[in-house]
Amino acid sequence: MESAGVQEDAGRAGDGGEATVSPAVRKSMQGNKRRDTRPELIMRELLRAAGLNGYRLDWKVKGHPDIAWPGKKVALFVNGCFWHRCPHCHPSMPRSNVEYWTLKFERNKRRDAETILTLQQEGWKVHVVWECQLKPANRDRTCKRLFPTLARELGKSLRQ
Ligand SMILES: [Zn+2]
């Protein structure tokens, strides 16, 4: 983890050098993003079940939203609670290398905020769903809160 963080710093400084780094490092530079995480798969399944399909994955705009409807400029991030520092479940802080982690988390949070702001300025509607909101006990509530808005923005009707 330490070395990935260092590489991330090096890569971020230039921002133009992405072509010269390995896929692993590039992935690390994109904020520890992994594709098809379990919460993402759950979210996609819920969306399909509700009739909110037609989305694209990792669309090529700022922040590469996990799920996006580019034609409607609607983006949905599925955030891991630990990496993105969930405001709902307050994930634990590693006990060693506290300084390193504090810095890293601050950077992740700042990057998330910048990404959302940039997308909004470009006319996107941005939604964030947290990993903990997709746990079995919370799923229904999350869908009830989010899906009517999404449906309206997408011009779709919800499948009940
Ligand atoms: Zn959480």
List the helices and strands and how they pair.
Layout: H1 2-14, H2 23-29, H3 38-49, E1 56-57, E2 67-69, E3 74-79, H4 81-84, H5 98-121, E4 125-130, H6 139-154
Parallel strand pairs: 3-4
Antiparallel strand pairs: 1-2, 2-3
Helix pairs in contact: 1-2
User: Helical amount among residues, as a percent range?
Assistant: 40-55%
Strand order of the largest sheet: 1-2-3-4
Structural class, from helix and strand content?
alpha+beta
State the total count of DSSP E strands: 4
Query: How many H/I helical runs?
Result: 6
The largest sheet, given as strand count, sense and whether it forms a barrel, is:
4 strands, mixed
Radius of gyration: 17 Å
Low-confidence stretches: 1-21, 25-29
Brief account:
The chain has helices spanning about 1-15, 25-30, 40-50, 80-85, 100-120, 140-155; strands at about 55, 65-70, 75-80, 125-130.
